[in-house]
Amino acid sequence: MAYTLAGGFLAAVWTDLFQSVLMFAGVMLLLVASLSAVGGLEQATLKSLQNTGPGFVFGPGYSAADSDHQFLPLSLAFSFFVVWIWGGVGAPAGLVRLMASQNTNVIRKSIYVLSVYNLGIYLPLIVICVCGRALLPDLAKSDEIVPRLALLTTANWPGGSLIAGLILAAPFGAVMSTVSSYLVVLSSGIVRDIYQRLLRPQAQRGELRLAAWATMILAGLISVAVMWSPPKFLQVFIVFSTSGAAATFLVPAIMACYWRRATPAGVAAGMISGAAVVLLLYVCGIMGWSPEQKVGATGGFKPWFLLGLEPLIWGLLMSSTSAVLVSLLTKPLAAEHISRLFDRQTGTAGRAI
Asked: What per-residue confidence (pLDDT) applies to 353?
C-alpha cells in the first residue's frame, strides 16, 4: 500500500515487474530443493500415492466407504480450465496492467513472453505440490505448503535461511503485485467515476489526489480487519473473487474491444447480470438452499455447482446473453464516436496517429 500511495500506477507497474522476476526465481529454487529432498520426481509420486491412497489418481476415485467425498465430475474438471483461463483475463488487476503497454505491438509480443513465463511458473508448482504431499502428508492447512516446504527442504543447505527467505518472498511478491493493481483500480474507480463525475465535478487535482490516498488507506485497513481472523482456506475466497470479477468485467471488456454494436446499456446489463448470477449461486450454496454436494471446498463457503459447473460459467453465459440482447435492443452509438474508437485516425499531415 505504501509504494502504491507514493507512486500510483507507475509504482504498481514497476514493482509488478520486479516481483514477477522474484516469483520466477523463488519457484525455481523451491523446485530444485523439493526434488532434492524427496529423491526425484519418481519417488515424489510414489510417496505421495502411499500417503494419500490411489483414489486420488485412479478411478473410480475415493473409496466408496468414504461417503464425505466423491471423485470430481468431468463438468467440474472442465470448469477449472475456464476459471483458470478466463478468470485471469477478466480480472481488473490484469486488465489495468494493459494500460502500461506502449502500443498494441508490445501487447502482442508480451503474449508470447507471458506464455513462456506462465509455463515456467505453474508446471513446476504442480511438481512442487506433489513433493509437498510426499514430504508433508499430514499438513493441516494446505495454504501453508510453500513456506513449510521452503523451511524444510533448505534446512541443511549452506545459507539455508537466506534461500528460504528468497523462496518465501515469491508468494508475497504475487500477493503484493495483485493487491497494488487492485488498489489502483479501486481508487481510480471511486475517485474518478463516482466522486469526480457525480459528486464533485469541479474538484481540483490536489483534492482528487487526497481522495485517492484516502480510498487506498481505507481499503487497506478494511483488508487487514477482515483477515485478522483468517479463514481455514484462503483459496476459496480467491476463487470467489476471481469468478465474480470475471463474470462482471470479461464480456463487457471483450465487447468494448471488438464489437461496434455494443452500447452502454448492454455493457451495464452484462456486468450486473454476470455478477448477480455468481452471487446468487454462492448464496444458495452458503445458505444450504442447493442440493447436497460432495464436491467443493471443505466448510460452508462454497457455491451451488449447478449441473456440476462452476458459477463463473453460468455468470459468463448470462453476462454475454444479456449484454448482446440489450445492446441490440437499444440505440447504437453515433457513427463518429464508433469510428474514433475502432478506426485508425489520420492527422492533418496524413500521418496515422
From this structure: 37
pLDDT in tens, 146-161: 888 888 888 888 887 8
State how far the Cα of 218 lies from the Cα of 199, in Å rounded to an integer: 19
**CA 33, 36, 39: angle at the middle one, nearest 5?**
145
**Measured between alpha carbons, how far is 175 from 3 in angstroms, rounded to an integer?**
14
Q: In Å, how far are 2, 215, 216, 273, 277 from 189, measured between CA atoms?
A: 19, 10, 11, 20, 23
Among 304, 246, 256, which residue's Cα sits nearest to residue 92?
246
* Neighbouring C-beta atoms of residue 25, cutoff 10 Å: 15
SS3 content of the chain, % helix, strand, coil (to 5): 75, 0, 25
Long-range contacts at 32-38 (CB < 8 A, ≥ 24 apart): 33/149, 33/150, 33/153, 33/154, 33/157, 33/163, 33/167, 34/127, 34/128, 34/131, 34/132, 34/135, 34/149, 34/153, 35/127, 35/131, 36/153, 37/131, 37/135, 37/152, 37/153, 38/131, 38/134, 38/135
**What values do phi and psi take at 110, rounded to 5?**
-65, -25
If you ran DSSP here, which 8-state letter would residue 162 be given?
A: H
Grid look-up 525455481 returns 28
Examine residue 60 and say whether the peptide bond preceding it is cis (omega within 30 degrees of 0): yes
pLDDT by residue (tens digit) across 291-320? 777 666 666 678 888 888 889 999 999 999
| Residue type for position 9 | F
